[in-house]
Amino acid sequence: MISSRYFAAALFMLLTCCSGEDAGWSSESGKVQTVDELRLVQSHEGVRDWMLTGDSAVYREEDSLLLITGVDIVFYENDLPESFLESDTGSSDLMSGVTVLWGNVFAENLQGRTLTTDLLYWCDSLGTFQTDCLVTFTIPESTGTTTLLGRGVTFDTGLSAVGDITVEESFTAVTTGEIPVD
What is the 3-state secondary structure (H, E, C) of the chain? Predict the structure, then answer.
């Protein structure tokens, strides 16, 4: 993966080159730049890890914080899409590699697993999603669907469990479909 310093430098160059307006610098809050239609891709040796797009973004140079609206992220495994995530808004701390997503957060993988919540943390270096908020996690199965409702979970970006699934509190499981009878 790209180090945070190189990622921040690449992002700054992208924002500088792609803005169709003035640089948008503000002396009141430090250097600030806004752009429409943001797209960031992280790859390693030509193989994509993820691609983040946004309707608009504000970059604050002072604290290396990127604020994004209309967030869509595609996560790749061996350069093929593995899962998708969208949210109304997000902020990415380019120094730590942690992105916080909020507002109608929805993730889905290619097997049809879905996750919905109000707030989600994505740690790029660990490849994980984590939340302490209420979560609905749906798992399609051959005989029906299992829906897990709870508060506080951690998954990898492909929506698989990281170790054991730990639900912090308030857990409910609902299964629909046919149950085989022996």
Answer: CCCHHHHHHHHHHHHHHHCCCCCCCCCCCCCEEEEEEEEEEEEECCEEEEEEEEEEEEEECCCCEEEEEEEEEEEEECCEEEEEEEEEEEEEECCCCEEEEEEEEEEEECCCCEEEEEEEEEECCCCEEEEEEEEEEEEEECCEEEEEEEEEEEEECCCCECCCCCCCEEEEEEEEECCCCC
Integer Cα distance of 172 and 10 in angstroms: 44
Tell whether the torsion through CA atoms of 148, 153, 158 and 163 is positive or negative.
negative
Q: pTM value?
A: 0.74
116-162 pLDDT, tens digit per residue, is 999 999 998 888 888 889 999 888 888 888 888 888 888 888 887 65
- In angstroms, rounded to a whole number, what is the distance separating the alpha carbons of residues 58 and 109? 29
Q: What is the token pair recorded at 90?
A: 């997000």
